[in-house]
Amino acid sequence: MVPVNEMVMEGLTLLAIGMGIVFGFLLLLVGALNLMARLVRRFAGEPAPMALAEGAAGVPTDESAVVAAITAAVALYRSRHGA
């Protein structure tokens, strides 16, 4: 039979080894992510400007029909459910 002190010490040793391995992996992961972020910033360049949608200038699009349908559905729901 193994003494309790030895079992506790072995458990603490395994705990320290396991936590050290996890901590080391997390440090490695953070370092890799920081390196990748630097590389992306260096080689990606400036993002392209966003183009405006056709409907943004006041030109009616098919979306106006969708908005009208949703508005009518909400009004119908509120009239039936008293909200």
Description:
With 83 residues, this protein is mainly alpha-helical. Helices cover 73% and strands 0% of the residues. The radius of gyration is 31 Å and the shape is elongated. The relative contact order is 0.04. The model has no long low-confidence stretch (mean pLDDT 87).
Main sheet, how many strands, which sense, barrel? Answer: none
Task: Work out the radius of gyration.
Answer: 31 Å
> How much strand content do the residues show?
under 5%
Count helical runs. Answer: 2
Question: Helicity range of the residues?
Answer: over 70%
Determine the structural class based on helices, strands and strand pairing: mainly alpha
Question: Which features does this protein show?
Answer:
mainly alpha; 73% helix; 83 residues
What are the SSEs and their pairings?
Layout: H1 4-44, H2 62-81
Brief write-up:
By secondary structure, the chain is mainly alpha-helical.
